[in-house]
Write the structure tokens for this entry.
Amino acid sequence: MTSPEIASHTPLPDHAPLPLRRGLELLHDPRFNKGTAFTTKERNALGLRGLLPPGVFDEQAQLARNIQTLRRKDTDFERYQVLSALAERNQTLFYRLLCQHITELMPIVYTPTVGEACQRYGYYFQRTRGLFISAEDRGHVREALHNWPERDVRVIVVTDGSRILGLGDLGAHGMGIPVGKLTLYTACAGVPPHQCLPITLDVGCDNDALREDPLYVGLRRRRVRGPEYDALLEEFIVAVREVYPRALVQFEDFANDVAFDLLQRYRDQICCFNDDIQGTAAVTVAGVLASLQLTQRRLAEQRLLFVGAGEAGIGIADLFVAMLGEFGVPADVARQQCWFVDRKGLVTAERADLNHHKRRYAHASPGPAADLLSAVELLRPTALIGVSGQPQAIKQPVIEAMARMQERPIVFALSNPTSKAECTAEQAYAWSSGRAVFASGSPFQPCTVDGRRFTPGQGNNAWIFPGVGLGVLATGSRRVTEEMFIAAARTLAREVRQEDLDFGSVYPPLERIRDVSVRIAVAVAEVAFAKGLASVERPRDLSGWVRAHVWEPRYPTYA
């Protein structure tokens, strides 16, 4: 017998029943609208006669028209606006286009273009694509959640806009991030769009220029902090558990001073994770694992030096330590292989200015290190991980020093958007004489150095969180665990092929992301069943079970 849960995820049959909406109401509903793809028979049956031009275009013709329209635009931000309008008009066509051109369009719907979209959010906002819950909604959060029209919400991405990519506090304009993340849940892993809910918690904004902008759409006050902030978050979590008890909550782009505390407070209470901490960790560790095929070293031999000591860097180090633990390396020994440089220099035990999340990586000082180059010379790391949000923080002498010490130095410049990357792909390859193993958070174009062609890999979190989410949804897992991210990292690393490595990439090509996400989901599901976290009985064919949950964007033919 087919499970009702699976049945709710399977594609619509070739002949679907007539939708409840008709006429203009149907054309204005992006879930059912087919635009000019409605056949003459459907137009007659659905009250559409005269409401569309007479020409009937099949899906392929619509796809061709839309990609041509996008390519005629002058800027990526214009393309972002065109795609947003398509998503609000015709959901199926939007996702079909995105899946068919994922390599070309992912940088448009997410990093780096989404950063500019957030910065300009108030200038183009016309129609909500998620929920805004503000500090003024205290006592009414449950009511706000009930106002969302969908009842079967399974994934919530929530931000408070306090640390949007590497751009800082964008307040309510950070809504572009949860919208973009959930777009990737559907495009990369087939999570049904009606089960996705973007939420922005507007607790004020400390960006004075933005807050005073006449077109700013959020609360015009400084950020709520302390007990008032904690009370709003608690009310939100309690309301989510009541209104959407089966939902996975993904915390996104919260500032460092609250991100770790939120994860620590709620990870054992609800099904949740923090993508900036755990998703970034998994995708980065996967890149390091794949790099071992080029460096010819074991994972336990790696010494990591992080440029930046925020939630991304600490999350990566924590997962690296956890993975070494599976090889029998004690946590205190594994932590000694992770070092951090922040704005004030090398993070050491002698410093009295450290936040609590840095202290477990504050080792005894090995000597004076006034800058990054001094730290590299002193520590001789095998891998340099840029997570600082500081453009050009990794300069030529640093990479030259890395290349002098390591035959194949690992250099990851992970900060987003592209303008915030610690170095460019071409710089990393040129300054290391083509020997660097490079990856970035936002995409870089292929480049040629010393006659050799490189196609740098993108360590985008989209390789991880959609697959993790799909695995959690398919099993009804009650929690998201560290073991799931370890499984995701290992699975992603195994998907890197020799031809990818030959061109310098430690990640698969993006056109494979939907299939890779399903494989990650299966690995996550294995953990859920092994740890007794699943709320469904284990199926005989686990891969088939997971694939049955994948939503495919295709038009039905209405009877």
